[in-house]
Structures are given as structure tokens and as C-alpha cells.
From TrEMBL:
Pfam families: Methyltransf_16 (PF10294)
InterPro entries named in the record: Methyltransf_16, SAM-dependent_MTases_sf
PANTHER family hit by this protein: HEPATOCELLULAR CARCINOMA-ASSOCIATED ANTIGEN (PTHR14614)
Species: Pelagomonas calceolata
Protein's recorded name: Uncharacterized protein
Amino acid sequence: MAGYVSRTYSSALSPTVQLLTNYLKQDAAVIKGRRCVVIGADAAYAPVKNAGAKSVAIFADCRKALTGYALADAVIVVGDLEAKDAHAAVSVIRAFARQKDAPVVIALSASMRRRLRSMLDTFETVSDGDVLVLRATTDEEDPLYREASLLKYAPEQGLPILIRQSPKGADGLGGVVWPGAIALARYLAPDMTPKTRIFELGCGTGFLGLALRAAGAGHVTLTDEFVELACANASLTEEGSDAPIIVRRVRWGCDEDAEDDPPPAKEYMWDPDVRKGILPHEPTATEKNLKELPQENAWREFIVGAELTPMVDGHVSLVKEIKRRLEHAVARGLEATAFIAMAAAESEKCATSSFLREAKKDLKIVHIKKDVPNVKEGEIDGLDCSLADGGDVVWVAELGLMPAATTA
């Protein structure tokens, strides 16, 4: 059977390893005497050890590091990390850099350095050049699950998932699963297919996007201003599905966070008509020996969010962000629809009514489903129903772009 290979630098030739080597020659003190866990490139062992590290554990995959090595007080991330691996890298950093002043050395592409920096809100920047160096600002015994509880979600269709909740995660309010997120997950689950992409706004724990991935979505992007808890849950729930998960910082309406997700990295297959039985890592591969694999063939994207509307002051920014993400999806040739779950409107002055008035200014309100069943007390293990806005139903607003914007 033909092997698979991605068109990237080998660990021995990676320019990021060379950047790391040059940096450590100038400033070895950052890791000297420390127990280091290194993610991404075997070739980084020598420069890290030569810089005076007490011990070095190398993992090619971030996910393996989470279970494979428990004695480290410095983290080095190097190589050709992709967007879909960022949440696992954040989880590794948070798992090992627990002591105050623990260093994190990041030798990656400029875009990935910026992405990881934006996702680590409890670290300060020591230096930011070709190599980014961060430092932990607090001591934490258990940074991923601070005062955590576990929510168990077993849908009628799809895979069961476990979600860690923390009142200290995602700025507090977003650190727990809200009943409206479960109601929306159930409502959308029958529509999930491998050709459906999910882009979640205000994800908090990441529950909604991860539940829709378990129901069959082919790609999920989780976004929030505070993403460390979502990173942890994404790392914990990846098994059982091949659908990629991207976690990234997005502040509503903020132009710094406006960029679209990058397209999936191209993958190649050995052409069995040219060479057969070659090992994937063999260095003699040339492009004439390779065939490009078909890429993700999604045809639609859902922008989703639940319990986002109580903060009335944020409605303008939320509508702006929904519109922006719809436009990104349409620009990629996809059908795009937003589904926002809210409390049933009680009056013209309530938060739901306020949001809908704002949405009408820039978006098309396709439909408002006013009878989506809410979650009942005791129905989901670990769910705090006191967070619900009350009522037996929630409203789900289906939103799209205005006709003129769609054709522009």
C-alpha cells in the first residue's frame, strides 16, 4: 500500500529548528537546568540538550505529550505546527508550565507564534522575535481544570462527549456549559454531515462545536476571547472522529482577529504507478512521485452561538462578527447560515428583542424557531440549570446575509 507524506520540511532540515538553535546559542539561560518537553521536531534534541537542559523529552505530536511525560518545567514548541494543532499545543503549555516564571519557547512560523500568543492569556512575553519566549505569571496546581466539574453529554445520535467546566475558565461565565448550548446542539444535530463546517462564536468550554462534531460535522472552529478551557476540551475529546478542530481567539468586531481560517494543508500520496511500497518518511520523495489528495469538500458552513445575547452592550459587535464570518464562508464558495440560540423574548425591551432589532440592520432574519425544547433539570449530568433564562423553550434565530451582500 502506498504511504502518505505531507509536503513539509523534515525535522532535520526544518528552518524553525535552526532558529531555535541560533536563539539558544545566544541565550541558553532560559532553559538551563530545566526539565524540558519539546514538541514537534526530533532534531531539536541536540540544541536543547547542549543549552544545558537537565532532561529533554521529545514528542512529535502534542497530544502524545499530554499523557506521555509528567516531569517538565519548561516547554519548547518547534517545527511545522498547523492551525488544527494549536489547541493541543496550548494544552501542553498549560499542563507543564505551571510554576511561576516557567519558560515557554516557541519557534514556529510568524502566524503560528501570533496565534499561540493570543491564546495564552496568563503568560507574559519575555521576547518576541524569530523565536517567541513567554513566561508563566502564576503558580497553578491544576491549570486546565481549576475547580473543575465534568459534564457528560450522550446525544441520541452521534458520539458521547465529556466536557470539563471551570468557574475560573473562559472569564468565568463561559467556563460552564449553558442549557441553551445543549438545546441548540440537539436542534442542529440531524443536519450534521461530513460536508458541514461549524464556526462557533463565544464558545466558552467549546461544548456546542464539539457536540456538533460528535454528531457528524466535518470541521469545527471554536472561538472566544478566552480559549484555554476550549483548548483543553478539544484535546480531551478528539478521539472517535477525524474531523479537524481549530481553536482560536476571536473578539467580536475586532479587526485584529478578522482573518479567515487558513485552508487545510495540502497532503500528498505516493503515486503507486511510479513507486510502490515506499515508507512515508523516505527522504527521496520528489513531486513527480506524489499525487495530491482530494481536499475537504464542504458545501456549507454554520456560524453558531448560544446564550450570547444577555450582554446587550455587545450586540453591535456580535452582529458585526456574525456578518463577517458569513461573508468569509460565502467567499470560499460555501452556503452560509448563522444559528443563534436565545431565551424566548418576554418583551420589546428584553435582550432577545434588542439583539433581533440590531440583527435586522445588517443581516437577513431567515426564520425564528420559537419552540426549540429547553433542557430539563436532571436531564444532563453536570449541567447547572440555574443558568437557564427560564421557560420550556428557547428561540433559535436563523440568520443570513442580505441579498446584495451575498452577490457582492
